[in-house]
Amino acid sequence: MGLNPLPPAPSGNASPAAETLLEFPDNRLLIDLCGANDRHLARIEEGLGVHILRRGNLLAVIGPADAQAEAARVLRGLYARLEQGRTVEMGEVEAALRMGDVPAAETTPAEQLEMFSAGNYELRTRKKSVEPRTEAQKDYVRSLFQNELAFGIGPAGTGKTYLAVAVGVTMLIGGHVDKIILSRPAVEAGERLGFLPGDMKEKVDPYMQPLYDALNDFLPSKQMQKLMEEKRIEIAPLAFMRGRTLASAFVVLDEAQNATAMQMKMFLTRLGEGSRMVITGDRSQIDLPRGMQSGLVEAERILKGVKGISFSYFTAQDVVRHPLVARIIQAYDAEDVAALARGEGDGNRGDYAPRRMPRSDA
User: Fold this and answer.
1) Are 310 and 151 in contact, with CB atoms under 8 Å apart?
2) Which residues pair with 16 in a beta bridge?
3) pTM of the prediction?
């Protein structure tokens, strides 16, 4: 099939080469690959500095040779995903541009621990598949499988809690743990429970809602309700953890920057036989009263280097929400740096340097 005359390749440091022609035999899958109004192709063009022309079941990639090769790899990988019956949305396009992993083959939940050790990074839950979308997320998920205690530290929107819950559901349905326990400090952002209407459950549930939302993404509602009735899934405020020993459980403490030092020590010492624990938090959003030490900050200082404990760090580059969120975080980080240079601020916000700190793995 012939192509219409092609426009000049975009200018760049690399020398342009002849276009790369890619053939996709299934036109229906090609439509999904291109996206509505070719929005997926437009994002690939923007991200890699190439130009993509569509003619029938052919795509012509024009631009510098290295960029052509990268675009061809991304397009082939996304098309292979569609051939497996999986979806391609803008999130998957972004992930392919960041990492370009070849989609994993179908797996059962029981095979996922082995799958991760082999370098494939897909979590298959009852309702959906979840894949890390940045290198930091990939390292984080790997650390959740490899370590009994893992910390995920970084700004909002980087998937710290979402991926932790996905791993917990994966381990539960795969029989690696008997229960999931999700917890949060129940007082944050200047609010206090006594000012909220209703009984204790009604007061606490609004703080726990993000955890319910994550679970709803991975489990059918009837199954989730049954598991909660059987106490195989528990969602509780941090204060309710005192005195318990959490055995054969996958335990997540979210918003850990708002735990006091005493609460953090209490929570960490709940770890029982056969359990795994994940601590997530954002040092830039500490809502504790002024002068009170964050348990997350203290634990990071004390536990760094302890065998069996990993620390994974995220930056604005790892934000997988709306792209504007990443720019907002970068703007706040820049303001924090300027404030510290002026001798202002307490250093509790926006300080994620160095940009990628090494993990202390077992």
Assistant:
1) yes
2) 64
3) 0.63
